[in-house]
TrEMBL record:
Coiled-coil ranges per UniProt: 96-123
Gene3D superfamilies referenced in this protein's UniProt entry, alphabetically: P-loop containing nucleotide triphosphate hydrolases
Source superkingdom: Bacteria
PROSITE patterns xref list: FTSK
GO molecular function list: ATP binding; DNA binding
Organism field: Halopolyspora algeriensis
Pfam families assigned: FtsK_SpoIIIE
Protein name: S-DNA-T family DNA segregation ATPase FtsK/SpoIIIE
UniProt keywords, alphabetically: ATP-binding, Coiled coil, Nucleotide-binding
Keyword Signal appears in the UniProt entry: no
């Protein structure tokens, strides 16, 4: 039972928390694009090489600087998120059986947290609770939902993912996912619609762009087909209730990531001491 709250000693040494806005990049007017990720989920879609994984790295970079969250990385391609492996609490490569096991584990943890919240008559976890937010990053959904394993396993993966996106937020589970194939068989509307943030990187068809952003946006002039192929890392970001915002993601080089990983290791060691 959560009788205690985080003590002043456990405030992250870096001063950064997963409850703080996450910096993603700049918009076309040069303004910062920072999003509140806690209690929300985010979906990235777009053609191969459009900048989805690089966009994800910004979120992982933020999470790596926080000692109030755990990082669960699901990387079907193994090397996209592999640079963060040493600081990840969980790292799953191209293995559908392990991916399902881990999602089931996450689902159990979510249910356990809801039981505890229920017992103390609360609706959601907050920054003072001695419970880590869990940031689950999945790159790329299609590998687990349509390529690896049997049909049953793929369906099970999508069922678990949908449940985590639908119910995870108040329990402190944030799902961050990317897909190269923004089509209804990979991202069913029922799954797409429950992501609070959605970002369409360059797409080849208006239908693909709408699969990420939602039906009707292309017709209103918000189509990721308008992003030039050489404009890597540019996307249309849709936040709950708003209109899509064209933005350019910040880009972390491998050297930046090595530096962040080293700093994160240091923070985590200090936090554990
Ligand atoms: N924000 C950015 N600024 C500058 N260059 C970028 C940016 N994002 C991506 N790139 C460049 O584009 C390349 C492809 O990006 P990335 O791997 O993120 O694409 P992707 O959409 O994940 O592709 P895939 O679907 O094949 O996984 C990167 O290696 C990098 O060179
Ligand atoms: Mg990628």
């Amino acid at each position: 039972m959560w009788t205690k709250t985080r003590s002043a000693d456990s405030v992250p040494v870096s001063g950064l928390s997963i409850y703080d806005p996450v910096h993603l990049g700049i918009d076309e007017h040069g303004r910062r694009v920072d999003i509140e990720l806690v209690y929300r989920n985010i979906l990235f879609g777009g053609e191969p090489g459009s900048g989805k994984s690089s966009g994800l790295q910004n979120i992982i970079g933020h999470a790596s600087m926080c000692t109030d969250c755990q990082l669960w990385l699901f990387d079907g391609k193994q090397v996209e998120l592999g640079l963060w492996r040493s600081i990840a609490d969980v790292f799953v490569g191209p293995d559908i059986t392990e991916a399902i096991d881990r999602l089931e584990q996450l689902q159990k943890e979510m249910d356990r947290r809801y039981d505890e919240l229920d017992q103390v008559r609360r609706r959601k976890i907050t920054s003072v609770d001695p419970v880590d937010v869990i940031v689950a990053v999945i790159d790329e959904i299609a590998l687990f939902s349509a390529t690896l394993g049997s049909k049953d396993q793929q369906e099970q993966f999508v069922r678990l993912l949908r449940d985590l996106v639908a119910r995870g937020r108040a329990a402190g589970v944030i799902v961050v996912a990317a897909t190269q194939r923004p089509s209804a068989d990979i991202v069913p509307t029922s799954l797409r619609d429950i992501f609070a943030y959605r970002c369409a990187f360059r797409c080849t068809t208006e239908a693909s762009s709408d699969t990420i952003l939602g039906r009707g946006w292309a017709q209103q002039g918000y189509s990721a087909t308008a992003i030039a192929p050489e404009n890597l890392g540019v996307g249309l970001l849709l936040a709950e209730g708003g209109i899509p915002r064209r933005m350019k993601y910040a880009y972390l080089t491998d050297a930046h990531i090595y530096g962040l990983v080293e700093h994160s290791q240091h923070l985590r060691t200090q936090h554990a001491a």
